[in-house]
Amino acid sequence: MASDEFYMFRALDQAHLGLQQGEVPIGAVVVDANGDIIGAGFNAPVSSHDPSSHAELNAMRDAAIRLGNYRLLDCTLYVTLEPCMMCTGAIINARIRRLVYGAAEPKTGMVESKANLFAQPWFNHYVNIEGGVLASRSSKLLKSFFAQRREQGTL
User: Fold this and answer.
1) Quick check: is 5 catalytic?
2) How many angstroms separate the Cα of 16 from the Cα of each of 43, 90, 107, 130?
3) Which of 56, 105, 112, 130 does the annotation list as catalytic?
């Protein structure tokens, strides 16, 4: 199976697709136990008019449709940014086995930055977590996007 960096580059590819559509550049892929990418997505709340259209949810929806099951057992989710509260809940409910993320999200991150929702004792599912994979690339892409938006006065 390929390395975490390989799959994070695929998530970054998704982030660039979102960037091309004017979305905040966050991308995600779901990988099954065989190492196959079975789901992909990028942030799209603006273009879809859907506040839940985060990269993680879009990738998990794609994977669930391909599998014909909402439970993504034995799958790994790669995402370029630390998940928010909504995405954390969806990851747990989908029974994702492993989460790998890039940059920390100091304002809304629910793995390490604001809280660790995954560590709460009331959940009946445990997710293995690896953070910081290609963090500088993910962070640079986001910082560049927001700097450009500030320059254009569109923030």
Assistant:
1) no
2) 10, 23, 22, 22
3) 56
